[in-house]
UniProtKB/TrEMBL annotation:
PANTHER family listed in its UniProt record: BLR7027 PROTEIN, NEUROPATHY TARGET ESTERASE/SWISS CHEESE D.MELANOGASTER
Keyword field: Hydrolase, Lipid degradation, Lipid metabolism
Single Gene Ontology BP annotation: lipid catabolic process
The keyword Hydrolase belongs to this UniProt entry's keyword annotation: yes
Domain of life from the UniProt record: Archaea
Stretches assigned to the PNPLA domain: 21-197
The name this protein goes by in its record: Putative Patatin-like phospholipase
SUPFAM superfamilies: FabD/lysophospholipase-like
GO molecular function, one term: hydrolase activity
Length: 518
């Protein structure tokens, strides 16, 4: 695959606008992203040709990282075909079928009938007691919220609330089965591994942890990482996977593209320190790298990778200390890795390709698995915990988008002014302008990097990334708590019905929210 090019001010060539796909983490909710991808492929495939790929960048965290990996691997295994993307949506669909499990015991008509009858009786019960206790509250005020009645506040018969819908009830008990019962989740997780609290000798403080070897085995049905590690070059889709270093609380981005000196490696660490961790993967991205971003804190053992820690100069591997670094799921720190996509995009085109002022702008599609807005007030334990989860892990990249746009606007203004100066003074390049500005601006504008070094002003201007379009496709956005089937354990509900519903919902939401050209 080749790409169309344009000439930049610096004399370097640059590609036209590139398209990025960003997938969040969310366990079973990754099936919703499979539906998103299916609809995006159908809507955008008419644009795919020898100079325009479906996606230039495919990035993900956790379940989104699995989806991203399977998509890029499918492309590489079919790169000689006219359309290497064809069949990739079907691969995702088959993967999610393989990790789903039938829970017919919660789907039978007797269960549905019992729930509907119980819900009807509960509603009548609630109405009776709300009306019966209204005079009590009118006479005694808020006595039920005072000691000694407060500990029993939620046990009063008018505080029981309504029963869940039949579908929410099914999802809840499916999640409970997969998470707590002794047979685990087929093709996903082992049975629970009990970890007692020996440190404080507290028998009630325990964790249920898991081994995710079953899902690794399932992924390898679709991706043989030992034979086909993922490494790509310009013109092929770029795979970006984001994990979290447990000890540093910093993100690491595994990148299928080469760095400046043709190495494939990840450089990361504390922004305030000159010392960085470097992890090499010359053969490409393998399962051990994917594991770092798909292993939550509940994995019985944290994934480890060998790193070199030292001062990185000119993107060269440092002479430093070798040590094992441990990782956990990327969604704890960057569940929507837009920032990592922007930074990696700039680093490649600016540092590797040498483009100073014509980095390809981005068109970005984001799958958002945790609703930002909901109607109604959560009151029962599950809906409260679910709302907390949605707030913690929803797409927080809107600020990154605003900052990127603001910086791009400033840089565009500066570039326009520099074009005027070049024309007025007959300068052949911007280097002469930076030379003229160096002395008068030396004491007026000082940019200090996070590690304390003074940066050249030109480095603040060159290589900046513009986002021309950003399309978010959100699961359950604006849902009402009164009729929502959403549950707190949705990330662990791998029931066949839920997975298929999520795939269909992702596809329908994408078609509704995206304006595809016919």
């Amino acid at each position: 695959m080749s790409e169309s090019t344009t000439e930049s001010r610096s004399g370097k060539t640059a590609t036209q606008q590139q398209r990025a796909l960003v997938f969040q983490g969310g366990g079973a909710l990754g099936a919703y992203e499979a539906g998103i991808y299916k609809a995006l492929y159908e809507g955008l495939k008419s644009e795919v040709n020898e100079i325009r790929p479906l996606f230039d960048i495919v990035a993900g965290t956790s379940a989104g990282a699995i989806n991203a990996t399977l998509i890029v691997n499918h492309f590489l295994q079919n790169k000689e075909k006219m359309n290497p993307w064809e069949g990739s949506a079907e691969i995702l669909y088959q993967y999610w079928q393989d990790v789903s499990t039938n829970t017919l015991q919660y789907e039978n008509p007797f269960m549905k009938g019992w729930l509907e009858a119980s819900s009807f009786l509960r509603e009548g019960f609630n109405n009776f007691w709300v009306n019966a206790l209204r005079p009590f509250d009118g006479y005694f005020g808020n006595i039920r919220e005072q000691s000694p009645f407060l500990p029993s506040y939620y046990l009063w018969p008018d505080r029981l609330g309504s029963l869940a819908s039949t579908e929410a009830f099914r999802r809840y008990w499916s999640w409970y089965q997969f998470s707590y019962l002794p047979w685990g989740t087929h093709n996903v997780l082992s049975p629970p591994i009990y970890q007692p609290d020996f440190r404080f000798l507290n028998p009630s403080n325990y964790m249920l942890r898991f081994d995710n070897s079953p899902i690794v085995k399932t992924i390898r049905k679709f991706w043989d990482d030992s034979k086909n590690p993922i490494k790509t070059d310009e013109g092929q889709p770029r795979l970006l996977l984001v994990g979290v270093d447990v000890q540093d609380a910093t993100t690491i981005t595994f990148d299928s593209y080469p760095k400046k000196h043709k190495q494939r490696m990840s450089v990361y660490g504390d922004d305030d320190s000159k010392l960085k961790h470097v992890i090499e993967y010359p053969d490409g991205i393998k399962m051990e790298h994917l594991l770092t971003t798909m292993s939550s804190h509940l994995r019985y053992k944290f994934p480890e990778l060998l790193a070199i820690t030292g001062e990185v100069i000119d993107d060269k591997i440092p002479e430093g200390k070798q040590n094992d670094r441990i990782f956990m799921d990327g969604y704890y720190l960057s569940n929507t890795p837009l920032r990592e996509v922007i930074q990696s995009h700039r680093d490649y085109w600016y540092k590797v390709k040498g483009l100073k002022d014509n980095v390809p702008p981005l068109e970005v599609y984001i799958g958002d698995l945790y609703p930002t807005k909901e109607q109604g007030i959560p009151e029962d334990p599950d809906s409260i915990n679910n709302r907390v989860q949605n707030i913690l892990f929803h797409d927080k990249s809107k600020y990154d988008e605003k900052v990127t746009a603001m910086v791009s606007d400033y840089v565009n203004i500066i570039n326009s002014l520099m074009d005027m100066i070049r024309s007025d003074r007959n300068y052949s390049s911007n280097d002469y302008i930076y030379r003229d500005l160096k002395k008068p601006l030396a004491n007026k504008i000082v940019s200090i990097s996070r590690n304390g070094d003074t940066r050249e002003i030109r480095k603040l201007i060159e290589g900046r990334v513009t986002i021309n379009k950003l399309q978010r496709i959100g699961y359950g956005e604006g849902q009402s708590l009164e009729n929502s089937n959403d549950i707190n354990g949705k990330a662990f509900d791998f029931s066949r019905k839920t997975i298929n519903d999520l795939i269909n919902q992702g596809s329908e939401d994408t078609k509704a929210q995206c304006d595809f050209q016919p």
